[in-house]
Amino acid sequence: MARRNPLEPAVSGDSLTEGVNDAPLQAAEALLGHRFATPALLREALTHRSAARSGRGAGSNERLEFVGDRVLGLVVAEWLAERFPHEQEGALGRRLAHLVSQPVLAEIAAAIALPSALAVAPGEARAGVKRRATVLADAVEAAIGALYLDGGIEAARRFVRRAWEPVMAGQIEPPKDAKTALQEWAQGRGLPLPRYELACRQGPPHAPTFVVGVAVGGFHGSGTAGSKRAAEQAAAIELLRQLG
User: Fold this and answer.
1) Which listed residue (44, 65, 138, 141) is catalytic?
2) Which CATH architecture has domain 178-243?
3) Predicted confidence (pLDDT) per residue in 138-175, tens digit
4) Which residue among the candidates 44, 62, 65, 69 is catalytic per the annotation?
5) Taking the domain 13-169, which CATH number applies?
6) How far is Cα 135 from Cα 119, in angstroms, rounded to an integer?
């Protein structure tokens, strides 16, 4: 049964439906494996801030991303506890941090062809915004939020378990803490320790977003998250991926 949408003020009226036919929505539903009882939720999840009617982000996928972030954490934590019944909090926490990190989310978005469904402003599209990891990660979380609000936790769980299965299956051992692994990489090559710098803090006080950059040995990475510590981990993960 479809759930009543608690975010209704953001999708009321016709602002999210004008000029959009059903074909893109049907394609997006196929990507997510869910038929939406409230299509406006899916439209909202696929609307980048640049394509929203309001310059302050109203009608964009930012609110659904906020919901989806929490739902994803719950669903993955539940899955990890089920899949690794003998592991304790430390190992499970490292697995969770990796699975919900920005690079992994962006990778999954690309794997399911989600960029093709995103609505962005023409100028942003020409600038390649659909290829940005932060935009792709936000879109995946927004899609999960929309799935949850439309079909409940089971709809979100089905999508996450299907989309994340390859990454989950590849986790034979708990991943190292990314910052520790990057530090060990640098020390093994006689390089200075990685340097982390806060690039900016965005969003409202109750839901801030931190962007952190990391540099070591001439290589650079960046990460975005809801806390400075998590953003540092995301930056380390991204740089480790570059380094192979």
Assistant:
1) 141
2) 2-Layer Sandwich (3.30)
3) 999 999 999 999 999 999 999 999 999 999 998 888 87
4) 69
5) 1.10.1520.10
6) 11
